[in-house]
Amino acid sequence: MVVKDKEQLKKQQMLKEKHAWQEQKLREIFADGRSLGKEELERALGGPLLPKVKFPVVRLVSGHYAPADSPAAWEDAANYLTGHGPLTLDDFVRKFRIHSSLVAALRAGKEIPPFVILPDGTITTSTTPEGQGELARRQASRGLQEKLEEIYRKQPFFNLGSILETPEQREMAVRMIQSDGSYRINMNGVGLWTSPYPHSPKFIVQELKRLTGMHLEAREGPDVLPLTWIATRSMTVQEAADKLKLGMEDILNLCELEELTSFRMAGSTRVWRDEVKAIKYRPDLHKIVKRASKITTLEAADLLDTTPDRIRRLVREGYINPAGEIEKEDGRMGILVRRGDIQAIKERFPSIEHEWALAAKQQRREAARESAARREKPPAGKKRPRRAVTPPPPPAGPLELDHFQQQAVRAALAGRHVLVAAPTGTGKTVIAERLIEAVIERGKAAVYTSPLKALSNQKFVDFRNVFGDEMVGLVTGDISINPYAPLLIMTTEIFRNRCFSEPEGLDDVACVVFDEIHYLDDPERGTAWEESIIFAPPHVKFLGLSATVPNIQEIADWMSEVRGEPVEVVVETNRAVPLAINWLSSEGIILDEDEAREYIEQAVKKRSEERKAERLAAREEEFELRSRRWNRRGARRSRKPLDRH
């Protein structure tokens, strides 16, 4: 028993010595960090690798052996990532825990080539598409950062239009600018970013005047951050209200009337401190505030001693401008007007009412004449029976789009520019509705432009019924309703002005619908459409709608050349609503061609007879008048005495 124990201890001692010898040998073999094949490793060790050797040796995918945390082992892990795709950090640690220094570096956010840490935290290599894309993005980011640094040093204010080369860089640039400490400001409708580098106050004032047209005092002093300079020279609406002892709504009303100059900075409205100080000591301040206040149509009617309907009529006919909207108790929207406008029109209002009364009286007279004319018997003649027009039966089931509508919707949803030429009444607006619906679902914004304010107002009401009141806004030259809605209705000139003054404000706009795009050929207003197409941000897609574009392919070729992208043309010649030519008589009767010709012949004949009768009557009247004159003259002669002859 004792002999067996001695033999066991001897074997353990020999195994321990062999382990120590192999560990020492492995250190010598792998001193250069290279990998060895199995046969080569066994020849160097004089036998197979013992299983409990403490020196960390890993078997690679290729079958070779290499020490853990060596370049060869890292290359093997990189090959695994290349073949299996990115791994989360936890999965990478579980699989390659033995590479302690590599794992520690990646956990600390330090990259060891060829490993790449993606923005979502996953691990990949520089040979994968994900890694190559991330390295390309970083390269572009470094180039963009260099441009930004140069802009920071040279200009206190800047916009992204002069920096970006592709639309894809916009999101990256905004993140970099915000991380550098820049803030967004909007003055006089011009959107700018502030430089995080200090500049002289005089240069800051000069740049504000050049970019926004604002005239501010230039005071000498040490260099200061543009944001700090603006913040010290301005105050928030709440601070202005506290200083003037007014409400915040009063301050905003003064800004709308341009009694105070306002601007947006870092998402909030601010006013200039000097202007607040100057207006504080004006003796008529409270009168100005009262004139600037907004009142409902009922309150305005009390001031003019009239009805709310007449106040709304004043707004419709342009005598006063609307100042906004307010939600009523029944959920409908009511109009707000300014008290000052009502007070200014108070003296003129009686004359306006008199004009309305005269117009109403004239309308009643015309209506009475038309009614009397209808009661007269129409000219006799042969009458054909009216052709019966049977309306088409309503479609059964869901509405199915026509072929040209489906083609246009597919192209627009695929992100292409589209031009649609189709007759009136064929459903071009449906294409715009499908595109706008898809854009809003993606969290983006859309713009619908029209050439006329009246058409913009009509589309505003129509789209509100389709998408809801909160989703649609209206921006025209004299009114702004819900201007931050995802769908904005505006005239083309206003969209053109935004492309010039604030292209950054169109970052979220994915598509623009040009209704009546044939105005592009208008000699006076066509430049608004041309400049909108040329200067709109590159990421914006266009949908042009028209019923009268004979050269639509030429327009598409020009747009393709300007935008650098193909434009799909969709043409429909079938008229879904056929045209029928009819005539309207002076009595308000609708006639077809034969009836109209017969009516005209009868009317001409009747008029000829009337004129003949008028001439005969005039001759008889003249003859009778002459007869009376001769009779009176003869009577006077007969009464003369004979001795006077």
From TrEMBL:
Q: What is this protein called?
A: ATP-dependent RNA helicase HelY
Lineage of the source organism? Bacteria, Bacillati, Bacillota, Clostridia, Eubacteriales
Please give the residue ranges the record annotates as the region Disordered: 363-396
InterPro entries listed in its UniProt record: DEAD/DEAH_box_helicase_dom, Helicase_ATP-bd, P-loop_NTPase, RNA-DNA_Helicase
Instruction: Provide a GO CC annotation, any one.
Output: Ski complex
UniProt KW Nucleotide-binding keyword: yes
Every copy of the Helicase ATP-binding domain together lies at 409-567
Q: PROSITE patterns attached here? A: HELICASE_ATP_BIND_1
Q: Which UniProt keywords apply?
A: ATP-binding, Helicase, Hydrolase, Nucleotide-binding
Question: Would the keyword Transmembrane turn up in this protein's UniProt record?
Answer: no
UniProt record, GO biological process: nuclear-transcribed mRNA catabolic process, 3'-5' exonucleolytic nonsense-mediated decay
> By its UniProt entry, which Pfam families does this protein fall under?
DEAD
Q: Any idea which GO molecular function terms this record carries?
A: ATP binding; helicase activity; hydrolase activity; nucleic acid binding
Specify the species.
Desulforamulus putei DSM 12395
Q: Where is the composition biased (Basic and acidic residues)?
A: 363-379
